[in-house]
Amino acid sequence: MKILLIQQPYLTKYRLPVFEELAKDYKTYVLASMDKSYGVDDLTSSLFTFIEAKEVSFFNKKFFWQEKLVSTFLQKKPDVLFLSANPRYISNWVLLLLSIAFGTKVVLHGQGFYDKDVGFFRKSLANLYSFLCHQYLCYTDTCKISLKGTRLFKKSVTVENSIVNNYPVCHKTINTGILYIGRLREGSNLKLLLEIMPELNRLHRAELFVVGDGADSSSLIEQYKNCPFIHFEGEIYDGKTISEISEGCCLGCYPGNAGLSVLHFMSLSLPPVIHSSLREHMGPEPSYVNHEFDGFYFEKGDKDSLFGVLHNALSNKKNLEQMQLNAFKKYKTITEPSLASRIKRVLSNQ
Fold first, then answer.
1. Average pLDDT per run of 10 along the chain, which is 350 residues long?
2. How would DSSP label each residue in 317-350?
3. Are 329 and 250 part of one and the same domain?
4. Which of 72, 81, 197, 332 has the least C-beta neighbours within 10 A?
């Protein structure tokens, strides 16, 4: 069985099924830092071997080094190396150079330049990646398009940066709940949504369910303790529990810079409501949203715009019901076949 060495910045819960499926065809080693805020605090049994590779930062956290990466590469001598395409990880550059020396196949996984202008430096970076890797796997089509005009574009393949919800909700009755999933911290902009909830509750009996925890949680809970229509559910990693909470909702909303939460909402048949400044989001996944077909856009940071979108959506329940079906169909399209299956297809061609 061929050896596959996977590097990740952090071990995340939503990636575990991907690694386990890959491990059925490859002797798989996963190296990553571990932080329980990513949903994994213990990994006792798995099909793959996990090696904690702690992250060390320097130059004011502009660059990073992951311990044990180089030594594990030299010890295991993998047939295939799967790396996240983050140029700030110096340890990854060392592995790329070692791969040339050892004749190791390299697959990079990244976001391209979807949120950046492609100037001379980034074009040169892409061309260098093209020389060092055999294939570049893009999170979304928008990521691949951003590589046009570089040599890396010819080596790029879209595999969709997807999550699998083991408790999807494929159809729902129209309720008036709004679901938020994510950390309560700077950048989530949850306050924008909280501030308009009293009026939405008055007009539509709308309720807000907040799933997540973070630096701002205590102050927000205290501030809105007298609002019975706002429910702070806390940090929940159990997919079944989140799905049960979503049954009382008709929309998902992430008022700040979103990422995979967009796909999570769609897996629950909840049209996502996100801001329209796509290049400012945490990831490329918000590009999945087709405005007023399977989700909604509002103007970033504009409370009136967010209120208008939610008010109009809640006022047209027949249209919203169709959008819920469309959102779930989009989720199925993105996640079938699975991310691991798409990766294996690429690896088998190496």
1. 96 90 96 81 78 93 95 98 96 98 96 86 95 95 93 93 79 85 90 98 98 91 96 92 95 96 96 96 93 98 98 95 96 91 86
2. HHHHHHHHHHHHHHHHHHHSS-HHHHHHHHHHT-
3. yes
4. 332
